[in-house]
Design a protein that fits this description.
The complex is a heterodimer of chains A (113) and B (109).
Chain A: E1 4-7, E2 10-13, E3 19-25, E4 31-37, E5 44-49, E6 56-57, E7 64-66, E8 76-78, E9 87-94, E10 103-104, E11 108-112
Parallel strand pairs in A: 2-11
Antiparallel strand pairs in A: 1-3, 3-8, 4-5, 4-9, 5-6, 7-8, 9-10, 9-11
Chain B: E1 3-5, E2 9-13, E3 18-25, E4 32-37, E5 44-49, E6 53-57, E7 60-65, E8 70-75, E9 84-91, E10 97-99, E11 103-108
Parallel strand pairs in B: 2-11
Antiparallel strand pairs in B: 1-3, 3-8, 4-5, 4-9, 6-7, 7-8, 9-10, 9-11
The chains are: A mainly beta (113), B mainly beta (109).
């Protein structure tokens, strides 16, 4: 692994189903983030974690949950998917670099029908 | 509320110079970032400004005026591969990034 990986790359999901998006980083970054990106809108923060064992709510947390059991993994769960959750989801991490800039995974394209 | 404004789309010619502006109103300021995002890909870090002035990095430069809530990204000697979206983001008082919607830059030969 080099950097951040996300799985799956894309997914089509029926409304009402449960779905977990996976995110793993190997940079030993303390902070991790989940964003969604929709056309015409900026990246919007869903949830974040400043360090393993802690999580916080971002701008649009409703309908999503996260956990941070260890430094490397930060899964995002949609308990009961709805069509408005159709989006591209990016996981990011930061920590240690000069400006504490965020590094992004390749994204998961999710379609909820 | 917090707000970041940037033009939706810009067009420029290969070899030319283009300036992408960003204005912001945020609760606190702990730095401004520019990211590049090619279609279908993840954003990648370009530049960071926390003090007023110009930061130069090769063909790319970024300027910040904190008193005006204003930044720009300057791209010189444009190449076709510079066709992408450019995202402005401000780190607020809670150390979270607030993102603009991005500027889609189209480079024409």
């Amino acid at each position: 692994i080099a950097g951040i990986t996300q799985a799956p790359t894309s997914q089509i999901l029926a409304a009402g189903r449960r779905m977990t998006l996976r995110c793993t980083q190997d940079m030993r970054h303390n902070a991790m983030y989940w964003y969604r990106q929709d056309l015409g809108l900026g990246l919007r923060l869903i949830h974040y974690s400043n360090t393993a064992g802690t999580t916080g709510k971002g701008e649009v947390p409703d309908g999503y949950s996260v956990s941070r059991a260890n430094t490397d993994d930060f899964p995002l769960t949609l308990a009961s998917a709805v069509p408005s959750q159709t989006s591209v989801y990016f996981c990011a991490s930061s920590g240690g670099e000069t400006h504490n800039e965020q590094f992004f995974g390749p994204g998961t394209r999710l379609t909820v029908l | 509320g917090q707000n970041i404004d940037q033009p939706t789309e810009m067009t420029a010619t290969e070899g030319a110079i283009v300036q992408i502006n960003c204005t912001y109103q945020t609760s606190g300021f702990n730095g401004l970032f520019w990211y590049q995002q090619h279609a279908g890909e993840a954003p990648t870090f370009l530049s960071y400004n926390v003090l007023d002035g110009l930061e130069e990095k090769g063909r790319f430069s970024s300027f910040l005026s904190r008193s005006k809530g204003y930044s720009y990204l300057l791209l010189k000697e444009l190449q076709m591969k510079d066709s992408a979206s450019y995202l402005c983001a401000v780190r607020d008082s809670n150390y979270q990034l607030i993102w603009g919607a991005g500027t889609k830059l189209i480079i024409k030969p």
